[in-house]
Automatic annotation (TrEMBL):
General function of this protein: Catalyzes the phosphorylation of the position 2 hydroxy group of 4-diphosphocytidyl-2C-methyl-D-erythritol.
Domain GHMP kinase N-terminal: 83-161
Species, as recorded: Micromonospora sonchi
Catalysis: reaction(s): 4-CDP-2-C-methyl-D-erythritol + ATP = 4-CDP-2-C-methyl-D-erythritol 2-phosphate + ADP + H(+)
Protein name, per record: 4-diphosphocytidyl-2-C-methyl-D-erythritol kinase
Keyword tags: ATP-binding, Isoprene biosynthesis, Kinase, Nucleotide-binding, Transferase
Binding positions for ATP per the UniProt entry: P111, L112, A113, G114, G115, L116, A117, G118, G119, S120, A121
Amino acid sequence: MTEAWRPEDDEPRGASGPVRVRVPAKVNLHLGVGPLRRDGYHELNTVYHAISIYDELTARRGDTLTLTMEGEGTGELALDDSNLVLRAAHALAGYAGVMPHARLHLRKQIPLAGGLAGGSADAAAALVACDALWGTGLSRDELAGIAADLGSDVPFLIHGGTALGTGRGEAVSPVLARPTSWHWVVAIADGGLSTPQAYRELDRLRETGAAGPPLGSTDGLLAALRQRDPRVLAATLGNDLQDAALAMRPSLAATLKAGEAAGALAGIVSGSGPTCVFLTADAADAERVAVELEAAGVCRQARIAHGPVPGARIT
Ligand code: ATP
């Protein structure tokens, strides 16, 4: 039996100092939910977009695997192997045949269970950070392969930018778009919503005929991304899970209405919610909409963000 390579056995391999990785949140510009598959997932047709709200993971050498956390929602997160950071570190170590030894520290700004894929982002950050710390030198595509087993959104958060997601969302291909920065307002709600529950609610609404018609193709959105006009993009944003999120959290209707009344070009629920995101014409409009949303008391906090931004990267 060969013994697993230990990072501390071979000093030149991997980083000796701390590795700091920044990872963005995602929104879905288009979230088309298809039928429920035999494996329990829904077939998705989505356009992911990475925005400038970040979590940060620092990895240092250690004799065991440990994780400490601070920031958004970390009081509610277990520090056991259900934590996606630890699951990602174990998955990479297993794949690369190394000991999973590291001291990890997570600083969260992405709200928990907010529909912004914060947990998936943290898993992506852990893969990139541990790969550098341990000197395992995997390609982004190899990391994305490990990521797919950790969660449907994790491969996208390795890559970032704007990308098409198919299958259960794990098959990601970049979208060719003009280099434009879009300006967003992100309205963060009190508390989270469960993603599996939102899908179940959508199934229920569809069974009873109470759901809106499915979004269908991403063609309109992809064409809009090739132009530079936020008004054109605004008209093509859509989310099949929005009816479900609104049924579970009716107060989101007031949030969406307030953002549009404040001058946003369009507002949608992000993923399974309860975060709502608003596209604005420019940075000044985004500032104004954020101030008005907070003043209207329809969200816990309104943050401005831009996108697309890169995925998990060493800073
Ligand atoms: P998505 O949009 O991918 O469905 P979300 O943004 O709604 O996700 P997350 O913040 O990713 O929600 O969290 C979903 C669940 O993942 C949490 O309720 C928590 O139980 C679990 N989880 C495990 N590890 C983490 C982590 N490091 N950060 C956040 N959530 C985690």
